[in-house]
């Protein structure tokens, strides 16, 4: 697969930038923090980091419609990251149309999770999906639920599990 085709696959997906695969991205040595901040990334201290390395939350503020607004100056981790699906396509193990179907299926799963979160009152699209789910879980577990809310939360829990299984089999890079 040529580089142009792999870039177009990424432009159909964006799950690594929109808060679905990652909750945050840690900057790497050599990243120009001042420049990244001037480009609009809200950098925060990485608690627990003895090196003082910073990170930024997902969804990325530079992500706009599956396009990176700071692509030529994006952080090192973003430059080097390749999901499992992209690696598989580049290696010729997965055909491009199959990869597109995998992405569409993941996006449909994400839409379902977001719809259920909205039904439960969470409309904050500026927080990574996993964080939104965990926050909702804490809120709902702290109070008695009516049957409808309990059913919706059960459906949400299953939808998040389904999404995570799909992502781990198709997108998460091997450790």
Q: Please, could you describe this protein's structure?
A:
The protein has 7 helices and 5 strands. With 175 residues, the chain is mainly alpha-helical. The strands form 2 sheets. It has a 3-stranded antiparallel sheet. β4 (63-64) and β5 (67-68) form a beta hairpin. It is globular.
User: What letter string, H or E per element, gives the SSE order?
Assistant: HEHEEEEHHHHH
Percentage of helical residues? 40-55%
Query: Strand-residue fraction?
Result: 5-15%
- Our measurement of the CA-to-CA distance between the termini, rounded to an integer number of angstroms, reads 24 Å
The tally of structural domains comes to 2
Strand order of the largest sheet: 1-3-2
* Overall average pLDDT: 92
Contiguous runs where pLDDT drops below 50 for at least 5 residues: none
Shape annotation: globular
Cα radius of gyration in angstroms: 18 Å
Report the major sheet: 3 strands, antiparallel
Count of alpha and pi helical runs: 7
Number of strands: 5
Given helix and strand content, the structural type is: mainly alpha
What is shown here, in short?
It is built from seven helices and five strands.
Descriptive tags:
mainly alpha; 175 residues
List the helices and strands and how they pair.
Layout: H1 3-13, E1 24-26, H2 33-38, E2 43-45, E3 54-57, E4 63-64, E5 67-68, H3 76-80, H4 84-90, H5 96-119, H6 129-141, H7 147-170
Antiparallel strand pairs: 1-3, 2-3, 4-5
